[in-house]
Every structure is written in C-alpha cells, then in structure tokens.
Amino acid sequence: MSFAKNLCTERKKLGLSAEELAERVGVSRSYITLLESGKRSPTKTIVAKIAKGLGVESWVVEEWALEEQLKKFGIKDKNILYQLRLIIIPFLKGKKR
What we know:
With about 100 residues, this protein is mainly α. The protein is built from 6 helices and no strands.
C-alpha cells in the first residue's frame, strides 16, 4: 500500500478528520490532503510529526515513506521490496527517537 493510502487509512481508523490530523502535525489541512492524494511526499521531519499525530512509532510511518521512495527508484518487485524492508526496518526500529 502506498504512503498516501496508509496515511488516509490510519487517519480514518482513528476517526480523525484531515483538519484534526493537520492540527496535531502542525501543518495545513490542504497539506494533509496533498499527502493523502499522493501529490506531495513528506520530509523526514513531517514523517516524525505524522507518527506522533497518529500515535504510532516513527518507524511505521518511515516504512510507508520508504516503500514509496523505493518505488520511485523503479523497485517495484514485491519480493525485493520485502527483502529491503527486512533489512532497513529493524535499523529504523533501533534508532533512538
């Protein structure tokens, strides 16, 4: 699933409007809408703020963003994506926040 879809799904699962999440993250509602439509990509700083706003670990949102970036580099094979996540996600989990 893409970063945009994951963000939208998680926000709705928590019963938050785009405006409520925007307030938690410290960005505009229109920026959240752009992220959820896939028209914008978040910075690392925004990824951390989104995680906090959603009440999830930063590495979870970083994984969404990572998959999106790998696809931009042309890595679309699900096996390769899975293998890269196995290598990178434990590293992200181990980072101090």
